[in-house]
Amino acid sequence: MPAAPPRPVRPAAPWADPYFTIGVTGTNGKTSTTRMIAAAIRAAGHPVLEITTLGVRSDDRPRERGKSFHDFLAHLEAAAAEGARHAAIEVTSQALAGGYARAWRFDLGVFTNLSPDHLSTHRTWENYLAAKAQLFMHLGPGRTAVLNAADPYALYLEQAIPADVRRLWFAAPSRGERRHPADLEADAIELDPAGTRVMLRPSPLADDLGGELRTRMVGEVFGENALAAALAAHAAGLSPESIRRGIAEATVVPGRFEIVLQGPDRPLVAVDYAHTPDALARTCAAARRLAGERGRVLVVFGAGGGATPSKRGPMGEAVGHAADLAILTSDNPRREDPAQIAAALLAGVRAGGRAAAEIQLDRTLAIHRALALAVPGDVVVIAGKGHESGQIVDGHTHPFVDADVVRAYLGA
Fold first, then answer.
1. Which residues, at least 6 apart from 63, have a Cβ–Cβ distance to it below 8 Å?
2. What is the CATH architecture of 20-249?
């Protein structure tokens, strides 16, 4: 049996050792889960450093991000000088493959879910899974791993976690059957344009939390992320009141089912970062529930060039199964032919069996087309780019913000 990997240590500096650091990894839901955890820590009265792929916030104030490990340590040190002893950090597979979990000691790891992504970086599915596992393999004795009991890959990760690390499990019905008993579980999840409500299955922690969680973020997946955040915050020693209030107060993550426009005489229009089959399926499911029995779901989406071509058919199928109309367009085609990308997506949409499909490779015109067709009661989702402020074509980045295109067209 191979020897266990060495447990990492903090840099030899007075500010480093007192930190309690929570790392969040997975394919989808990392940013929103990290945001909810940080909000719960703030609600408990503790300054907190929050680092995600969208930026760095020290006690909810933005900082210039930086991308190197030196920048990472500089943020931690600066926040410590301001009184922070907690950090909530989104940890990507690229960062983990680069050794972050060996170079900085994480005290608690959270696993959201896993589905195919970033295979152009990791080359194989096994390498991608192994990169995620790094966060949990290097947790110290007596620390905690928070795992998704309804995701089958959590069971693979669990085998890599040292025996002296505590495991806690969460589960939401939208993910499917539980693969492991859960410590915090949703009985049902309700959503409307104002947010998401999670009704908790009775348990000691659920009872302490008042039987439910609420978040401003809209979608069943955010209810699942709220469960992960609540369990992580509980493991970090926060009070149930701080957990409940922090998750309820956490601001919507830009570009994560961000509702741009709504009203009695307008369709509901949301932009979303969904760019994997699993994320698109969940985004479409949220849109379908908001549309109700009478409204239609219209989805504008594409796929990035040069990244995991094998996921394009399943992406199209996810939309084709749930939407009424799919408008295929360019995402960040990079150096690929957008028409070929759209053709792969179209085959998937047709396999989905429900949605009608159109191709409009000009993303602005595709958004305009969806908005022109939508009527009050419909839900329009513009997926794939979310918060991004540019579109990458032939190696050049051109300014482009989905939400701005929507607002300009509707004069809002």
1. 55, 56, 57, 75, 78
2. 3-Layer(aba) Sandwich (3.40)
